[in-house]
Write a structure and sequence with these properties.
By secondary structure, this protein is mostly beta strands. The chain has two helices and 22 strands.
């Protein structure tokens, strides 16, 4: 009886020992080790929770080794979701793709808005969400001037594909007769999609002030630059100028006008230098570039000063020009005292120098 009891005790002991040994010798799954290492690496690298990282489905034949050391893991080149995993002791390497579940504040619409609605940052609120988000989510802080290109609903995630760039346009609120003045009370500024306007319909409001309608305009029309003549400044002739006469500040002045300004109008006389009329110029007409040409700095029959420098001595001689001359021209002059003819180079208005 005692021997039988000892046999039962021995069998029980061996059974327990086998159970312990079987648990101790359970092989570690290399895939689980690799997955844990990848999640920890990505979490530390991107400063996110490792729970947000998941491995994309692996091929059934994928079989990593049980690495003696820690796996060496790195992002593959500049990819955000591909990793290079290596086990140098086993001379093994493989590429693994991951997915990241984001937790972020996402902008959503606070109400229902129709197409064409000018969207502002106040009509978007941030909600904390978890998931995989598109890169086309609207940047609420840098929204800019935009309108909706489609209807939206409350709570809908705000995407950049929902909006388009907008501009400020000017709509007439009542009829305006041709040549009548346009005022701020004649228009209403509206925000409209840039794609629904033309380049001429985009202009600053200040251009309207003081302008006159180029034609009869009906209420509801989007104003274009061709609809009005804006007030501009241009150079006008103040008295009749004969052919060949000098054109300067004594017979011209800047004026404001609602008339159309030709492209070849003179806007700054000083940039032309010394000029003369090429035809009779009537008073109160716009001065054009085609109305003038460079005027001689030295005129035939006029007294001209010849400067001669010898060392520290400067000598000025008065001569009479025998022909017209522009800057740098060689012209003939006559000494009125001796009757001697001289050739000199034009150096300025009424001035010449001896040629080198």
């Amino acid at each position: 009886m005692q021997i039988r009891w000892l046999k039962l005790l021995l069998i029980s002991f061996l059974g327990c020992a086998c159970t312990v040994w079987s648990k101790t010798d359970t092989p570690v799954d290399p895939k689980i080790v690799l997955e844990a290492a990848v999640k920890q690496y990505v979490g530390n690298s991107l400063e996110i929770s490792s729970d947000q990282v998941s491995l994309r489905p692996l091929h059934p034949s994928f079989s990593p080794p049980l690495c003696a050391e820690n796996f060496k893991i790195s992002f593959f080149e500049k990819s955000e979701n591909s990793l290079l995993v290596e086990c140098k002791s086993a001379k093994w390497r493989s590429y693994i793709s991951i997915s990241i579940t984001e937790i972020r504040d996402v902008p959503v619409y606070i109400g229902s808005f129709e197409r064409g609605h000018p969207l502002t940052s106040k009509e978007l609120i941030l909600e904390r969400m978890e998931g995989k988000f598109s890169k086309s989510i609207i940047d609420r802080k840098n929204l800019g001037l935009v309108v909706l290109r489609r209807p939206v609903k409350p709570g809908q995630i705000a995407l950049t594909t929902d909006i388009e760039k907008a501009v400020v346009a000017h709509k007439l609120i009542h009829d305006v007769e041709a040549k009548s003045k346009l005022t701020a009370s004649s228009i209403k500024k509206i925000i409209i999609a840039e794609s629904r306007t033309t380049a001429n319909q985009i202009f600053p409001t200040r251009l309207i002030n003081g302008s006159v309608a180029a034609r009869q305009l009906r209420a509801g029309r989007l104003l274009s630059r061709i609809d009005f003549n804006e007030r501009k400044r241009a150079l006008f002739v103040t008295e009749n100028i004969r052919y060949g006469s000098l054109v300067d500040n004594t017979n011209t002045e800047m004026r404001s006008t609602n008339d159309k300004i030709p492209r070849n109008s003179v806007l700054n006389l000083s940039t032309l230098g010394r000029v003369q009329a090429v035809r009779l110029l009537r008073s109160d007409t716009l001065l054009r570039h085609s109305d003038v040409r460079p005027a001689p700095l030295v005129r035939s029959g006029e007294a001209t000063t010849l400067s001669i420098k010898k060392g520290s001595l400067n000598i000025a001689v008065t001569l009479i020009a025998q022909e017209n001359g522009l800057m740098g021209d060689l012209i003939k002059l006559k000494n009125p005292d001796s009757g001697e003819n001289v050739v000199a180079r034009v150096a300025g208005v009424g001035k010449v120098t001896l040629p080198n």
